[in-house]
Amino acid sequence: MTIQAAAPPTGKPPDATRTPRLAAWRAELGIGGGLVLLAVLWTVFAPNFASATNLSILLQQTSVLMIVAVGQTFVILTGEIDLSVGSTIGLTTVVLALLTVEAHVPLPVAIVTVFAMGALIGLFTGALRVVWNIPSFIITLGLLTALQGLAFTLSGGVTISPLPDALSPLWDGRLLGIPAPVWLTLVVVVAGMWVLRQTRYGRHLYAIGGNTEAARRYGLKVNALRVSTFVVVQCLAVLGGILYAAQLNSGNATVGDQLELDVIAGVVVGGVALFGGRGRLIGTIIGVLFIETLANGLTLLGVSSYLYLIAQGLVVIAAVVFAAVQQRRKGDTR
């Protein structure tokens, strides 16, 4: 009897993007249809919803949420989550204000500094996750309060203003009649889509979320890839903080409070699986637009913000239940 040793895997890493494509399209079609229906509903019942002014404001207000949601999608695709992005946004506005207003640091240097801060926060989060194997939910939940506390400590709990005039065009500027934040969002979204769809890095993120052990066997640097996603989302949160600072012309520790919940809601509603490996960035974009359109219409109707929170929670629960039902039908019990 001849015994042959099993050959080590030599092919490409497991591709987690092919099988779930149909499910992703269905989810995107469903939430896309819901977005269209919601827009029609608000056009009929909410005054001025379809006006050019309101739609421009809606896109501008959605920009920060959309930018951070791109980074959160990268993280969630690997089966992780980052709850600290809202606090990073607040800390960014405070540090940027302190550097430019109090320390008189040139604006370009201050911007580079806050991006470096975001990268370090991401590296710290990722290191705790991969070295100590602490769940990212716990790590980032702790960072959520720690970073917010740091922002309050640095600012003394007061608003720091005014910021340099050179910052305001990032929010108030327009190109071809379109607000600058919308252009920035478009750049981030297109870059994110290209990375996830066209690069090995993007395919590897799907592979990790789809089957971590299989990804390890194929030689993927799982830990390094996971850490990189935390750096990405934190740097995009810093970009969001810079935009908010430009909008408010100040630094304030409360900016970005609870934004992480809106970000996760948009990602989940858009069909990205919380356990990783499934979902597409286009779904995230639709999900974020749905969440923000819901809020915009309710505001125009004069509905209490508390009722919006209830509606948002119910939408997220419905999206998660729908995803769970789809997974059960396929026999995937992860």
TrEMBL record:
Which domain of life does the protein's organism represent?
Bacteria
Molecular function (GO) terms for this protein are:
transmembrane transporter activity
Q: Which UniProt keywords apply?
A: Cell membrane, Membrane, Transmembrane, Transmembrane helix
Give the GO cellular component terms, alphabetically: plasma membrane
* Matching InterPro entries: ABC_transp_permease
* Topological type in the membrane: Multi-pass membrane protein
**Pfam families, sorted:** BPD_transp_2 (PF02653)
Localization annotation? Cell membrane
Where are the bilayer-spanning segments?
27-45, 57-76, 83-101, 107-130, 137-158, 178-196, 224-246, 258-276, 281-300, 306-325
Q: Return the PANTHER family for the record.
A: ABC TRANSPORTER PERMEASE PROTEIN YPHD-RELATED-RELATED, INNER MEMBRANE ABC TRANSPORTER PERMEASE PROTEIN YJFF
Please report the name of this protein according to its UniProt entry. Answer: Ribose/xylose/arabinose/galactoside ABC-type transport system permease subunit
**Species this protein is from:** Amycolatopsis endophytica
